[in-house]
Model the fold of this input.
Amino acid sequence: MVWHGRILNSSGTYKHLAIGHNECDSIFILNLNIRYSANSYDSAEASRHFFWQGSNYTQSGNYTYMIRDVAASGCDSILHLHLALLNDAPIPHIRCHDRRLLVVDHYPEGEEGPRADYTAYRWFRNGQLIATATSDFYVEFVDGVHQNLSGCFYVEVSAGNGFWVKSNIICIEPGKQASEPATMLIHPNPTTPKYIITITLNNIDEYDTLELYDIHGRLLKKEQAHNGDNYIIAPDNSGTYSVVFRGQQNTIVKKIIVH
Done:
């Protein structure tokens, strides 16, 4: 706030002395109370649609949403969303072969599903970008010799317009096998309304979750995931739905058809 030529950026009581044309002084007193908006930041990755704060988003971008008068001070809250969409391609998934080769799985929904191709890749080791790794696989050579990998790796694939989507993480320790990524099988698929669907998970952690979304990206169900068989009831209405496994190391998205 600018007041009598001063920039005020904190609450308080301010005084300004002004001398009038009749040489009489005037004192102006301002009791200023500045209320700050509460900001919340989040990011999301999805295949085609994402439903957020009552709206369905179909393009990557940075979005904001204002919630009026919910903070304790009576101020507005502003939500910020960094959204990356992959135009129908599934969330990327990587696999490790013989501790020497990392590859992007082009069939993350199974061999019966469509092939997933992405326009650009960038690999990371222990959170640091590997500048020379820009293909759908990663290997290391020293003096022409194929090396064992060491560290925690993941790949990001381009979602266009400067947005990137992260894969699962695979950690490889010297002398140990690479950590196995989680796997998910769904049966029966296709299924019928209100039928019990079995979701079989392996290699998952304690705090992993299962989520069910409709074709518009609306979350229909969320529950804790367990190793072995998990059960959900198919939605009442026919259509295409997405089952999302969110783990500590990777995310798996598979479609189910209800007819």
User: Anything to note?
Assistant: The mean pLDDT is 80.
